[in-house]
Each structure stands twice: as C-alpha cells, then as structure tokens.
TrEMBL record:
Region Disordered, annotated ranges: 302-324
Keywords: DNA-binding, Transcription, Transcription regulation
Protein name, per record: AraC family transcriptional regulator
Lineage: superkingdom: Bacteria
Family matches, as Gene3D superfamilies: Homeodomain-like
Source species taxonomy: Bacteria, Bacillati, Actinomycetota, Actinomycetes, Pseudonocardiales
HTH araC/xylS-type domain ranges (all copies): 205-306
InterPro entries (alphabetical): AraC-bd_2, AraC_XylS_family_regulators, Homeodomain-like_sf, HTH_AraC, HTH_AraC-typ_CS, Tscrpt_reg_AraC-type_HTH
PANTHER family to which the protein is assigned, alphabetical: ARAC SUBFAMILY, HTH-TYPE TRANSCRIPTIONAL ACTIVATOR RHAS-RELATED
Natural source organism: Pseudonocardia yunnanensis
Length: 324
C-alpha cells in the first residue's frame, strides 16, 4: 500500500504519477490524503479523503496526447457532493453514488467541502465493453441503492482492505473481478448503443473471460478457444473483430500483461524467467522473450530490473478517515 498526503500542487503531481495528467485549482487551505493498492500493472484501487473545494480537469489537448493504453476511472463517492462533466453530460454525485470517466476525452470534476471516495483505476482494454459503450457510460451517476452498484461498491471497499494479503495472481484476478462487476453495473445506466450484438456480444464476453481465466494453459490458442465455445475459428475471428483484434492477438496480449505484472511484483523477484513464462502459458522461453520485447520494447529481465524496485518502500499505514 502507498500513502500520499498532498495540497493542491501535490494533488496534480500525484494524479500525473498514479492516474493521468490533470490540472487542479484549489484553495490555499485544501488538503488531502490518498492510499493506493496496486492490483497489477494496469489496475489500482485507492481511497481518498479531502478537505476543501477543488476543481480538477483534463483538457482536450491533454486528452489528444493519450496513448493506446489509456485509462478509465470509476469513482464511488463515499461522502461529500461533487459533479463530473464529460461528453456534454453532467453527473451530480451524492454519498454512495458512482461515476465513470475516461482519459481519452476532456473531463472536469468539481468538489466542495469535505469528501471521501473510493476509486478503481484501470486500462480501458480490460473492460469487456465496446468503445462506444464505455463512452456512453461516462458521466452518468449510478444510483447507490441499485443492486449492482451496491455489489460493486461493497466489493471495492472489501478488496481495498484485504489486498495486502493477496498474492500477485490473486490481485490480478480480484482486480479483473471488480472490472467485470463494473461492466454489469454500467448496463443499468448506459443507453442501448446501436450495434450491440446481443447473443454475439455475450459470447465474446465469455470468450474474453475464459482467456483471462486460463492464461497458464499452454493448450489455449485460437482454435482451442473456438472449440471450447462450440464455434468455428472463423466465427471466433469475426467476434474479436468487434473489438479490433483477433483471438490469437488478444490471448498473447493478456499473457504479456499478466507476465508484466509478475515481473513488477517483488513477491516474484526470485522466480526464474522460465517459470514466469510458463505461469502465463509460454512453454518456450525464447518465444516469450521475443514477444515481450516486441510488446514493451525491452526484455523481461530489463523490465524486472527497472520496475521491481520503483522507489522507496511505501508505508503500509492506512489513511485515517474521519467518522462518517
């Protein structure tokens, strides 16, 4: 767990390091505290407490610089009142409600008084929804009494508390489970998007989930994935075209994402490179190293050396939140 205390300028710096570049406007007396739990290379859960009004926003120019692995934030407002604006929509947030916003377009968050929040931050390619569905889900307030929202907020709260006791692979699974719950909750608030494929979309979701759940299975490839879901390889390819990829490319990408997370986790520092490769389904070390280098521009060993000790050891003290 990492703990950060900040003022207005510190909030801008923390957001740039942990989430995305933003601009903040605060009063001189603004103060905040944030604790972050990394659930893998691409997923983070954080709790934050702030006192004082602030305006945090991301401009169109900032959004235009977003790379292909841009991020999404889902925030549960535990206390306080805030507004989020994106895509010409404004979500008014009260205690217990949630909101989604994405890095690839401008957004604005206005918050006043004392606030507490719980935020899920992740790479948008982990959310099993189409691009248009994600965009339509942004800046829409999610009702705190809706069953799906209650499940999601309760899960995130508990996940944050137990994350320190999870292994790296358990963190990956738990983080993905949170994203899957979010996808379910978003369907309650997102208008129907033209082209939503009905049964085909459900089957694609099932296949993507199966890939993430069986990365270590070296038998799993495009043909085996199609066979296990009782469709032809061509039909599987057609389904994955909906998200701009192929079954084989998606499987390789997810294996490399999992490997990258293991190589960044101190708990796996003594694990040999062949063992890391096998844990994500690569039987041949050279094939793994070649694929990793193509994807991330460095060898797995180079990635481990740069990321296994990214900085001073973070404190494990939880932030003290006022009763509320």
């Amino acid at each position: 767990m990492q703990i950060h205390e900040y003022s207005g300028e510190g909030l801008e710096q923390l957001a740039r390091q942990s989430f995305m570049p933003v601009i903040t406007r605060t009063r001189p007396d603004f103060r905040g505290r944030m604790a972050l739990q990394e659930m893998g290379e691409a997923v983070t859960v954080s709790r934050a407490y702030s006192r004082g009004s602030h305006r945090t926003f991301r401009t169109d120019r900032m959004a235009a610089k977003t790379s292909g692995d841009d991020v999404v934030l889902f925030c549960v407002h535990a206390a306080g009142r805030s507004h989020v604006r994106q895509h010409d929509r404004v979500a008014e947030l009260k205690a217990g409600s949630g909101v989604l916003y994405e890095a690839r377009s401008a957004w604005e968050l206005l918050s006043s008084g004392e606030g507490r929040s719980l935020t899920l931050h992740f790479s948008r390619d982990l959310l099993p929804l189409r691009t248009a569905e994600i965009t339509e889900g942004c800046a829409r307030s999610m009702d705190p009494v809706a069953p799906a929202m209650q499940m999601l907020s309760g899960y995130l709260d508990r996940l944050f508390d137990v994350a320190d006791d999870l292994t790296a692979s358990q963190r990956l699974d738990a983080g993905q489970a949170a994203i899957d719950l979010l996808a379910m909750a978003l369907r309650d608030v997102t208008p129907a998007v033209p082209g939503d494929g009905g049964p085909a979309h459900v089957l694609l979701d099932m296949m993507r989930t199966h890939v993430r759940d069986h990365l270590a299975d070296p038998r799993l490839g495009a043909e085996e994935l199609a066979r296990r879901h009782h469709v032809s390889v061509r039909h599987a390819q057609t389904l994955f075209e909906r998200i701009g990829t192929t079954p084989g490319a998606y499987l390789r990408e997810q294996r490399l994402v999992a490997a990258r997370a293991m190589l960044s986790d101190p708990r796996y520092a003594r694990l040999g490179m062949s063992d890391v490769a096998a844990a994500v389904g690569f039987l041949n070390l050279r094939t793994f190293e070649r694929a990793f280098r193509r994807q991330y521009g460095m060898t797995p060993g180079g990635w481990r050396r740069e990321h296994i000790h990214p900085g001073p050891a973070p404190t494990t003290e939880s932030p003290k939140m006022p009763p509320g």
